[in-house]
Amino acid sequence: MEWPVATERGTADELARTLREAILRLNRRVRQTRAVGDLTFSQLSALTSLQLHGALTPRELADVERVQPPTMTKIVGKLEDRGLVARTPHPTDGRQVILAPTEQGRTMYAQFEQVRNEWLAEQLAALSPDERDVLARAAQIMQQVAQA
C-alpha cells in the first residue's frame, strides 16, 4: 500500500486516522496473545513504566502514564496487593514515597515482555528487510510523537 506524503492538512488528518486505526488493531492483537496472570492493561502499563524508568514517586508515575494521581493510587494499590510493587521512603522528602518493582514484579514484567514479543516477532520475521527497516524508522518517529 502506498501512503500519501503528509504535506497538507487533509493528508495529515487521513494519515492520523489510518495510523490510529493500525495502532489500535495491532495493540488489540498483541493483547490477545497469551495473558500473563490476570493483571489489567493499566496495571501492566504501570509495572512496565516502573521497570523502564526506574523507581518513581506516585506522582511521577501518574505523569508518565498520563493519568490522574487518584487513578494511579488505585493501580499501585492493586500492584502492591499482588506483591509486584513496593513503596520505600523518599531519600530526601519525608512526605514522599518511591515506587519500584519487587523481584516478583520484575519476573512478571519479563514474562509479559516475552509473551507479547513472541507473536509480534513472528509477524515481523515474515516481512521483507525493507519493510522491517520502514517499521523501525516509523517506530522511532512514533516514540517521538508519544513523548510530545
Automatic annotation (TrEMBL):
Pfam families: MarR
Residue ranges occupied by any HTH marR-type domain in the UniProt entry: 12-144
Gene Ontology MF, one: DNA-binding transcription factor activity
InterPro entries listed in its UniProt record: HTH-type_Bedaq_tolerance (IPR052526), HTH_MarR-typ (IPR000835), Tscrpt_reg_MarR-type_CS (IPR023187), WH-like_DNA-bd_sf (IPR036388), WH_DNA-bd_sf (IPR036390)
Keyword terms, alphabetized: DNA-binding, Transcription, Transcription regulation
Name of this protein: MarR family transcriptional regulator
